[in-house]
User: What shape does this take?
Amino acid sequence: MLKKNKKEIKKICIISDCFVPKKSSAAGMLYNLSKGLIDRNKVVICIFGSSKSEKWKIDNNKLKDYDLKKIQTITSDFLEKFRYGSYYSRFIFEILLSCSLSFKIIKHRNILLDTDLVICYSPSAFLWLPSLLLKRLTKAPLYLILRDIFPDWLINLEIIKNKTVIYFLNLITKPQLMIPDVIGCESINDKLALKKKLKNKNIQTLYNWPSLSHNIFKKSKKSPFIKSYKSAQKKHSNYIKSVYTGNDGVAQDFKRGIDFIINYLSSDGNNHDLILNKFSPFENAEENFVSNKDSFIVKNWGMISGNLLDDIYNLSDFGIVSLNTKHRTNNLPGKFISYIQHGLPVLCFANKNNELSQIILKNNCGCVVDLNDKQDYNFKILRLFLNKIRDKKNVYHRNSLNLFNRYFSLDNAINNIIDHKY
Assistant: This one.
């Protein structure tokens, strides 16, 4: 039987597949969550998959931008090389990581037994095994932070079509939805969809929170990169400056959005010049989508430290979000949160019925281009958006900040997790 915690939650264990210094929204969100909990006098232990190259030590140069002194960690780099590569390779890695973290929990069980709450952050669908093990050992409630419902998104995007494979994946990942005491979904529509599947489950909406914060990084001098970046932007001072800090995969279908912008800027009646500054979350990313037309410049800057993104966003006029229009789950990407956190207007390429699209339109913090609609109609939407962006006092800036403070702040997320009656 679970112990019913009416007393204050003092010790929290977070299980995930990654953590800083990995350059991903999930890693940054979990770092901020850990720091936020520590600021509320909680003891936090993070159990996650790292890599040998990171050598997860406080004196590691890659970790110098983070305040890690009070975060306790248990890590595994077992067969980390399988993390990247094909979907099959990733599948193998997910299972191996789940087993490895389970062994780590058994090995370190003495420091985990007085845990009051277990949190599992899950884009990974196989972390239910170490989560279940820790739940049984500690008799603590389990809160599942559910992001990117698996395997649903793979099925929606037609990456997986074989019915036998779909049945198998649904079967082996089903426990992730059965064992938590509470499931926190990132959108209202995902919550409603899960409630139909899980009739008696405690499911709530837990919106994403920032993967970076103005005050969370150690203070540091302006980097040489930012100086050169500013200089590059000044060379095109009359251009509208946009930014994209996301992936290029099938889930984003970003190339389609780029092609649309190029077609728009090449059309009659266009009077805009635009720079797209693209930053990849992965090392050695290919410099895709490079273009240098008279009215449109795409510059792929590769991968940078997260503590530089504040400056990047502050030097931008708007941010771009891209979701494949086949998405039926309602993903709210971390980069969207980062954009509105900095008051950036948002240009969103997505299905107009997607929850992210509806949030942007309802709160008037940007525009939505559904690439399934007629091109002339979408050109009109983009033209109106860019005309407003030219006005530095456009309403989007204020509306983005208001939206962030109302729903997506770190405090909101922490309150929803630790104030819940388990």
About this structure: The chain has 15 helices and 14 strands. The longest helix spans residues 87-107. The CA atoms of residues 332 and 356 lie 6 Å apart.
